[in-house]
Amino acid sequence: MTIEFQENISLKPYNSFGFDVSARYFAVLDNAGQLPAIRDFSQQNRVSVLFIGGGSNLVLTADLDQLVVVNQIQGLQMQDNPDGSVSVTAGAGEEWHPFVRWTLQQGAYGLENLSLIPGTVGAAPIQNIGAYGVEIKDRLSFLDAFDLETGESVVFTADECQFGYRDSLFKSRFPGRYLITAVTFTLSREFKPVLHYGGIDEQLRQRNIDFPEPLQLSDLISDIRNTKLPQPAQIGNAGSFFKNPVIPVDQAEKLKHEYPNLVLFADKSGYCKLAAGWLIDQQGWKGHRQGDAGVYAKQALVLVNYGAASGVDILEIAGAIQADVYQQFGVMLEIEPRCYP
Ligand code: EPU
């Protein structure tokens, strides 16, 4: 099917913050066969391409003089492997949470802790989504992508994606070069729940559950998320706005000595991860509001748009938080979502 290119389209429905900026050119992609036409269009009109999925990890600060392409490639496939694992492939435009629920209903386990994360399957590897002790890199086998530079289809194994904490080669090394068309996961027929993350045990006790069923665990994770994170349909947001900072152990120990309640987790050897939410919370930002931009009242790591805030308003608060936390704790917070233009 041919692809339609439109002009001056508002991106308000296409980003979870609900920022009202427009795209000079706009198209909806529903199959990989349309990708060469997108490449031709961008070359002929001399504009770069911004691919978006659910738009749930984006800060748009002004109108985009680009071609914005919303990836809606659908499709689900599942195949049992001789070793007892299951290979599951999803089109990049499939919505993440319904996809996770579908895998569980089909008896393929491993993604339950990533329930209710907003966005699409194809956007998930870009920032290596993670929650409650599981990251997508732990379950991803390979992905299919289109290279805008060469016009060729390429396959990336999990290793080749160079995954890091909320990071991958698609985010840091080659932003804008590849469009992910499908993602293949290796899941398990045996349910081996990951229950060690703080808060899960307490919820299990409250519900008198010793060993959860897969869908029960997915529900429980969804409930925890709902108590801490606003639903983008109700209040615009992009999840955690900052990464949890990773700092050398000796610096963390000094801070812990000074602030005994500091929340930190051992990371890779020699480093510690600090809870950015705790640092921001200590400085009294939770619930802060400037016009329609603010800090969510139940989670200091989440910045929110109550209606008419712009990306610039949000970045202004973010800058003030970064300066404040740096002054108090000597730690620079890094912004997590991708900012455009
Ligand atoms: N905390 C506070 N005050 C706050 C927020 C948090 O003191 O306002 C403290 C809590 O006491 C808790 C600690 O900070 O002990 C960590 O908080 P939480 O478990 O809510 O997780 P987080 O570090 O804020 C991370 C991810 C989330 C993910 C959750 C659960 C990042 C940047 N964020 O948040 O991911 O859902 O853990 O695994 O790593 C996202 O990336 O968009 C996202 C939502």
Descriptive overview:
This protein has 341 residues and is an alpha+beta fold. The protein has three domains: 6-71, Uridine Diphospho-n-acetylenolpyruvylglucosamine Reductase, domain 2 (2-Layer Sandwich), CATH 3.30.43; 76-188, Uridine Diphospho-n-acetylenolpyruvylglucosamine Reductase, domain 3 (2-Layer Sandwich); 236-340, Uridine Diphospho-n-acetylenolpyruvylglucosamine Reductase, domain 1 (Alpha-Beta Complex). The chain is built from eight helices and 20 strands. It has helices at 35-44, 96-105, 169-172, 200-206, 214-228, 249-258, 276-282, 311-329, and strands spanning 6-10, 22-29, 49-52, 58-60, 64-71, 76-80, 85-91, 130-131, 134-135, 140-147, 153-157, 178-188, 236-240, 246-248, 264-266, 271-274, 289-290, 293-295, 302-305, 338-340. A five-stranded antiparallel β-sheet has the order 6-7-12-10-11, with no helix packed on it. A four-stranded mixed β-sheet has the order 1-2-5-3, with helices on one face. A hairpin with a 4-residue loop joins strand 15 (264-266) and strand 16 (271-274). The longest helix is centred in the last third of the chain and has 19 residues, at 311-329. It is globular and about 60 Å long. The mean pLDDT is 97. Uridine-diphosphate-2(N-acetylglucosaminyl) butyric acid binds at residues 131-132, 228-229, 239-240, 243-244, 263, 275, 277-278, 281, 286, 299-301, 336.
What tags apply to this protein structure?
3 domains, four-stranded mixed β-sheet, 24% helix, Uridine Diphospho-n-acetylenolpyruvylglucosamine Reductase, domain 1, 8 helices, 341 residues, five-stranded antiparallel β-sheet, 28% strand, Uridine Diphospho-n-acetylenolpyruvylglucosamine Reductase, domain 2, binds uridine-diphosphate-2(N-acetylglucosaminyl) butyric acid, single chain, alpha+beta, Uridine Diphospho-n-acetylenolpyruvylglucosamine Reductase, domain 3
